[in-house]
Amino acid sequence: MVMNNAIGAAAAALLILSGCTPFAADGGFGSVAQAAHQRLDKEVRWVRTPGEKAKSDAQIAQLLRQPLTVDDAVQIALLSNGALQASFEELGISEADLVQSGRLPNPRFTLRRTSAAGLYDIEETLSVNVLSLLTLPYVHAAGKRRFAATQTAVAADISELAARTREAYFTALAARESAQYLGKAKDAAETAAELAGRMRAAGNWSRIDESHERAFYLDAASAFARAQAAQSISRESLTQLMGVAGDAAAFQLAEKLPELPQQVAPLIDVERAAIDDRLDLQMMRARIDALAQNLHLAKATRFVNVLDAGPARVRQGPDSEPYETGFEVTLAVPVFDGGAPRVRKAEAIYAQAVDRFGQAAIDARADVRKAYARYRSAHEIAARERDEVLPLRKRIAQEDLRRYGAAQIGVFDLLAGARAEMTGVSDYIQSVRDFWIAKSQLDSALLGHPMQQETPW
After folding, report:
1. I need a surface site. Which of 34, 36, 315, 381 has the fewest CB within 10 A?
2. Angle formed by the axes of helices 130-201 and 29-40, to 10°?
3. Is-above-0.85 flag for pTM?
4. CB atoms within 10 A of CB 64
5. Strongest mean pLDDT among 207-216, 426-435, 441-450
6. Which domains does the chain have, with CATH numbers?
7. Are 176 and 238 in contact (CB under 8 A)?
8. Long-range own/partner contacts, residues 1-6 (CB < 8 A, 24 or more apart)
9. What confidence score (pLDDT) does residue 136 get?
């Protein structure tokens, strides 16, 4: 009876202690959503109920009722992209592992019963892995670090999707504008080619002169065809990232690209920005902390890796004999393996992580500086196009029109000047697109992206 009470009390204690790590109401998504709002000023939603889906659908439908800005496109992607929603499920997986890491190991009950000639040998043992109990705080702490790393990785997925959507938006909008201007250039070249054909038929032009105009037209037609293909492909890429289909895929883009700013923003304290804010370095720092704990645990348990203990009762003899009570301990004797290889491996993995972090910090600084250099260069090129090249082409076109009115140049010279002006506008559109993409890439470089790597926590 005493043993029964002891076993029952032990089981009750295990049941009470095992329920001390509950699931969070939001699955750990609240901090991720807050970080996304702080970094991107956008709302993200983990769609897990019909009500949440209806709310996201209504918000998306509202945004699609008007021509999309780049912020609208990013917001829709963060609400609708299926791959991002799948990334959110990693939180559920990681939280389940976290809760599991805080649960006590189940006790094991062993029964051995033999009999011969009315004599019985019965042994009952209830044991628990004592080493697991002793290391439970370390294991649970590692589970917390893994969950925090998952939250950081999900936040990085959000930032990456936002960056890719911005780039796809600027590419699609620039492709549409370029196609429009190249279409006008193609029409001008076609008019010149038709006129050249009529003049040659009338005997006023040579075959080579007509061939030149025809070649201009064919080149313009090919450029327009490529622009149309680029427009279709870039729009599909944007649609894919936004995660919309059906009627929603018929969205309208804004009329034109955002205006080029007058000057670029200065990059202040690149060292701090690269080291403190990048998500990949945050994950590497967390991994180093985890490996340090692993190293400590490996050293603490180097001689013992199996330790089971628990109450036991034994009866030997006839059925009328009472049970003998006591306990049983199972211990692995470190005769052949003293744990040195495990410690050495843990030390090497920790040193490797520290070395990789040092190089990653150098790479992060370089990444930010290179991205900023591209950002400044793209602004200088686009600003030169806007402030010097386009006004010059416009003055040339106006002068050609005046000279044509004064019969100083022919219609072919006028059409050639018009083609050059429209091609110049298309080039400027591409320059503005390149600037906004460079700006998005700079923002991404400042945030960083976690590297794919094993995390032996």
Report:
1. 34
2. 40
3. no
4. 19
5. 426-435
6. 2-447 (1.20.1600.10)
7. no
8. 2/325, 3/311, 3/313, 3/323, 3/325, 6/311
9. 75
